[in-house]
UniProtKB/TrEMBL annotation:
It comes from Streptomyces humicola. Pfam families: Metallophos, SbcD_C. Residues 1-218 form the Calcineurin-like phosphoesterase domain. This is Nuclease SbcCD subunit D. The keyword Hydrolase applies. The keyword Cytoplasm does not apply. GO terms for molecular function: exonuclease activity. NCBIfam families: sbcd. Residues 267-355 form the Nuclease SbcCD subunit D C-terminal domain. Belongs to the SbcD family. InterPro entries: Calcineurin-like_PHP (IPR004843), DNA_Repair-Maintenance_Comp (IPR050535), Metallo-depent_PP-like (IPR029052), Mre11_N (IPR041796), SbcD (IPR004593), SbcD_C (IPR026843). Signal peptide: none annotated.
Length: 386
């Protein structure tokens, strides 16, 4: 059986305030052509279909168009909600859509109820595990700890129990939206840390033939059976080195997996350039970046006059400007965001306590901070999961 694994469409997202709607439309066109041209038997979309809980109308229209086109092809499509989606809103009409071969899995209670696909070599049970926010689903799964490993482990126990009751030889696929240990992050993914921990071990998915992951935006292989497709478009300059693609997965009669990458169209490349203003404006080495979306980092010891306007004359698509003066490492003008880059909310809170009273928080205080950060994240309307 041939599967097309994609995720993290983030419909409705912009890139430094530049609309990506036309690029997302081009991706949907490409997706439909790949399904048709590669004789795909089923499409798997592992969450974050939208960029936020209440998406803009053009994003909803594009999603509606994608569903209609996939249904017209007669190819079953299984989709799960991600941490950016509103599970309840996305799941409206799910039972009606199933009649057209569109299977939306947004309810955690349904983790053990697969979409069963039939093929010449027997059935394939496809289990959709929507994004599981630990604090919201711990009661559903009856776990003691409100963390990702506990709730995902309980969900996978339901998957394995259902699979064990099926006919011998039934192949299995799981869709999940999670941060699996060993995956590489980038700046455009929203933090899903809960209880101080964000990642889960790949072994949590043992017992199934293929795991189609979403959440991380880089296409990557955790194991031969556990893969991220990544996002089809770049959503931050940290993805400048990404090769955007989908996985075309062939699931053999014996459950063996072979996979190849299918490139996604690139509307405009990304470039991260670095140097003094004079170097960026004159050096031939930067000519290849003139048609790209550009993030420039200036290394001048002192900030030059009107750098953005001057750079825009050579790089008309420049979107971001940063400063990293090489001769003044302690420059107070270095942005607060730059100083915090790569640090978790927990680390920032711990550093603040240390700064205020000259000693860090003890374990009890860290636990209080952790609980407060989790509660604040759940109250953020952008992270609505229900």
């Amino acid at each position: 059986m041939r599967l097309l694994h994609t995720s993290d469409w983030h419909l409705g997202r912009s890139f430094h305030r530049v609309s990506l709607l036309s690029a997302q439309e081009a991706f949907i066109d490409h997706l439909v052509e790949v399904v048709r041209g590669e004789h795909v038997d089923a499409v798997l979309v592992a969450g974050d279909l939208y960029d936020r809980a209440v998406p803009p109308l053009p994003a909803i229209a594009l999603f509606d168009d994608a569903l209609h086109r996939l249904a017209t092809l007669g190819v079953p499509t299984v989709m799960i909600s991600g941490n950016h989606d509103s599970a309840r809103r996305l799941g409206v009409g799910a039972r009606l859509m199933e009649r057209s071969g569109i299977h939306l899995r947004t309810d955690p209670a349904g983790c053990g109820a697969p979409v069963v696909l039939s093929g010449p070599h027997g059935n394939v049970a496809v289990y959709g595990l929507p994004y599981l926010e630990p604090a919201l689903v711990r009661d559903e799964f009856g776990v003691d700890r409100a963390d990702h490993a506990a709730v995902l482990g309980a969900a996978m126990d339901r998957v394995r129990a259902d699979l064990a009751a099926r006919a011998p030889g039934t192949r299995s696929v799981v869709l999940a939206h999670a941060f699996v240990t060993g995956g590489e992050e980038c700046d455009s993914e929203r933090d899903i840390t809960a209880g101080g921990v964000a990642s889960v071990p790949a072994g949590i998915f043992d017992g199934v033939d293929y795991v189609a992951l979403g959440h991380l935006h880089g296409c990557q292989t955790i194991t031969e059976r556990v893969r991220y497709s990544g996002s089809p478009l770049a959503y931050s300059f940290s993805e400048a080195g990404h090769h955007k693609s989908m996985w075309l997965v062939d699931l053999g009669e014996d459950g063996g997996v072979t996979a190849e990458r299918v490139d996604c169209p690139v509307q405009r490349p990304l470039a991260r350039i670095r140097g003094t203003l004079d170097e960026l404006l004159t050096a031939p080495a930067y000519a290849s970046s003139q048609d790209a979306w550009v993030e420039a980092t200036l290394t001048d010891a002192h900030r030059p006059h009107d750098p953005m306007a001057r750079l825009a004359k050579r790089f008309p698509h420049i979107l971001a400007l940063a400063f990293d003066p090489q001769d003044a490492p302690d420059d107070p003008l270095v942005s607060y965001a730059q100083r915090l880059r790569g640090r978790t909310d927990q680390q920032i809170a711990d550093d603040f306590v240390t700064h205020v009273r000259d000693r860090g928080p003890d374990e009890r205080e860290r636990s209080v901070l952790r609980d407060a950060l989790d509660a604040a994240r759940l109250r953020d309307p952008r992270t609505e999961a229900v």
